[in-house]
């Protein structure tokens, strides 16, 4: 029962982060969002979601009993872990870029086109990497 | 940091604030700033993932996780996460990430990491060993000796982790500043009337 709960939490957290990131990418790209405030609010959720993803991910591994790194499954897990570590590094830079932009500009003012473009790109890149992680997770789950 | 400094400025503004200003006040007067929450979660996640990665490459991950109950694992992670948040918050409350020297930040990070390491160990000790001690299954002197050595090791390991984490935090903060578009150093649009 606990394993099912952990797996469900893992999927829900990933869905929330992929969905939120994609919405922000499209909104900054199309100009539907012109301020920093929605992104700042989302970043709180994003990092909470990252914490949930990590502990539920480790919980899933514990429930599965992962085979060694020499197997095909083990190699895929190694790739996924490495991609996730890189993803975290990119994400922290994205969030801090947003915070530093807020230091220069009021959160509720319209953004400069350059910053809107930058935010669109970073959220687009985040969404793309997350989709790659989802594909790796599918390979681990279903082969 | 400007974010933390703004919190004080917003608190000084009176009751004449407009709605956006009040929203900004609510955001900036949270007990933990977005920078603290982000960096603490990043450090925690990286710490755990690098541990998992190391265990997996050495082939010992399955054995390591097999002995860990799922709910206990979740509780330990949340405890570690909370300690990272408190440690990063303590550092950011004393040293500004954007203006302090690297050595000052690194020293504060090491100090906070040492304390967090010891608190982490003591927390685990209270949960795991106190019930055993109460039932008389273990001798108190032996436990105290192990605890004394453990506290020393936890302080050193925590200090090293805190030092590395603070160096990494400074690096990503600097990188974020370097990636900020040039236009952001000057206001491009006129602020909305308040």
UniProtKB/TrEMBL annotation, chain A:
Residues 39-140 form the Copper resistance protein D domain. This is CopD family protein. Keywords: Membrane, Transmembrane, Transmembrane helix. InterPro entries: Cu-R_CopD_dom. GO terms for cellular component: membrane. The chain crosses the membrane at residues 44-65, 77-102, 122-141. The keyword Transmembrane applies. It holds the Pfam family CopD.
Automatic annotation (TrEMBL), chain B:
Residues 1-24 are annotated as: Disordered. The chain crosses the membrane at residues 34-55, 67-90, 110-130, 142-165. The keyword Cell division does not apply. Keywords: Membrane, Transmembrane, Transmembrane helix. It holds the Pfam family DUF7965. Residues 33-187 form the DUF7965 domain. Residues 1-12 have a biased composition (Basic and acidic residues). This is DUF7965 domain-containing protein. It comes from Haloarcula argentinensis. The lineage of its organism: Archaea, Methanobacteriati, Methanobacteriota, Stenosarchaea group, Halobacteria.
């Amino acid at each position: 029962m606990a394993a099912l709960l952990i797996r469900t939490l893992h999927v829900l957290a990933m869905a929330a982060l992929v969905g939120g990131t994609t919405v922000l990418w499209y909104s900054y790209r199309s100009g539907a969002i012109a301020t920093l405030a929605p992104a700042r609010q989302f970043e709180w959720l994003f990092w909470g979601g990252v914490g949930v993803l990590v502990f539920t991910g480790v919980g899933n591994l514990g429930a599965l009993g992962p085979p060694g790194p020499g197997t095909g499954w083990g190699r895929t897990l190694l790739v996924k872990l490495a991609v996730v570590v890189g993803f975290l590094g990119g994400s922290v830079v994205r969030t801090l870029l947003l915070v530093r932009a807020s230091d220069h500009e009021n959160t509720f003012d319209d953004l400069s086109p350059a910053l809107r473009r930058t935010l669109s790109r970073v959220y687009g890149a985040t969404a793309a990497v997350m989709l790659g992680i989802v594909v790796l997770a599918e390979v681990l789950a279903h082969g | 940091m400007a974010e933390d400094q703004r919190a004080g400025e917003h608190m000084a503004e009176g009751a004449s604030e407009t709605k956006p200003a009040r929203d900004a006040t609510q955001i900036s007067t949270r007990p933990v700033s977005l920078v603290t929450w982000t960096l603490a979660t990043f450090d925690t996640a990286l710490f755990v993932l690098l541990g998992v990665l190391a265990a997996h490459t050495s082939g010992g991950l399955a054995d390591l996780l097999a002995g860990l109950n799922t709910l206990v694992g979740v509780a330990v992670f949340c405890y570690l996460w909370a300690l990272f948040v408190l440690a990063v918050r303590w550092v950011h409350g004393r040293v500004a990430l954007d203006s302090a020297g690297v050595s000052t930040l690194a020293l504060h990070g090491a100090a906070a990491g040492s304390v967090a390491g010891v608190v982490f160990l003591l927390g685990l000790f209270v949960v795991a060993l106190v019930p055993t001690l109460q039932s008389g299954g273990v001798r108190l002197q032996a436990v105290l000796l192990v605890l004394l050595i453990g506290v020393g090791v936890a302080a050193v390991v925590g200090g090293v982790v805190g030092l590395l984490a603070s160096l990494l935090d400074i690096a990503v903060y600097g990188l974020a500043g370097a990636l900020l578009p040039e236009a952001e150093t000057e206001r491009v649009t006129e602020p909305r009337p308040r």
